[in-house]
Amino acid sequence: MDSVDKVEIHELVSRYCHILDTRNWADLDKIFLPDAVVDSGPTLGVYRGIEEIAKFWYDYAHPDGHHALNVIVEGEQPDGTVKVVTKGFFARSGGFNGGDYHDVVRKTDQGWRFVSRTYVPRWKVDVSGT
After folding, report:
1. How many angstroms separate the Cα of 52 from the Cα of each of 56, 57, 112?
2. E strands within 1-130?
3. How far apart are CA 110 and CA 87, in angstroms?
4. How far apart are the C-alpha atoms of 11 and 38, rounded to whole Å?
5. What are the backbone angles phi and psi of residue 27, rounded to the nearest 5°?
6. Cα(first)–Cα(last) distance of the chain, in Å?
7. pLDDT of 5-27, one tens digit each?
8. Please, are residues 72 and 6 in contact by the beta-carbon 8 Å criterion?
9. Could you tell me if 30 and 11 are in contact, meaning their C-beta atoms sit under 8 angstroms apart?
C-alpha cells in the first residue's frame, strides 16, 4: 500500500460523510461493497448489503453534519483488506455526539470500498434551547 492508497482511503471516509449529509443513497455503491456490513451498535442495529443499509438510513434522523477526524490507516491484512480507525463528530439539533469508527476496506477496480463499518459511540453533549 502506497501513499496514493492512503489518500484514497482518507477520501473514502470523507465521501461517506458527504453522502450521509446529502442523503444521496444512490451513491452508496461508491463507498460500500455490495455485501458490506454496517454495525451501528446495540441501539441502532447491524445492516448487511447496500439495499438494507439504504433502507435503514432513508428513515433514520441523521445528524445535520458528519465529520471524520483523526483517520488512521492501520495497515494491510493478509486477505488484502485494510483496517482503518476514525473519530466521528456529529452536529445535530440540540447538541453534538461522537465516537469511533472501526473500518475494514478493500481496493476494487472502482476504487476503495468499505467491507464493514462499525460505530462505537463515545460521548454526547445536549445543549438546551434557552
Report:
1. 6, 9, 20
2. 32-39, 46-48, 65-76, 82-92, 95-108, 111-126
3. 26
4. 18
5. -95, 10
6. 51
7. 999 999 999 999 999 989 999 99
8. no
9. no
pTM: 0.91
User: Residue 123 pLDDT more than 80?
Assistant: yes
Where helices occur in the chain by DSSP H, the ranges are 3-22, 41-44, 50-59
Strand 95-108's sheet: what is its strand order? 46-48, 32-39, 111-126, 95-108, 82-92, 65-76
**From the centroid of its chain, how far is CA 83?**
13
3-state secondary structure of 122: strand
* Residue labelled with grid coordinates 453533549: 125
Based on its alpha-carbon atoms, the radius of gyration of the chain, rounded to whole angstroms, reads 15
Q: Which of 62-66, 76-80, 110-114 has the lowest mean pLDDT?
A: 62-66
pLDDT in tens, 92-117: 888 888 899 999 999 999 999 999 99
So what's the pLDDT on residue 87? 95
Which of 65, 56, 57 minimizes the C-alpha distance to 24? 57
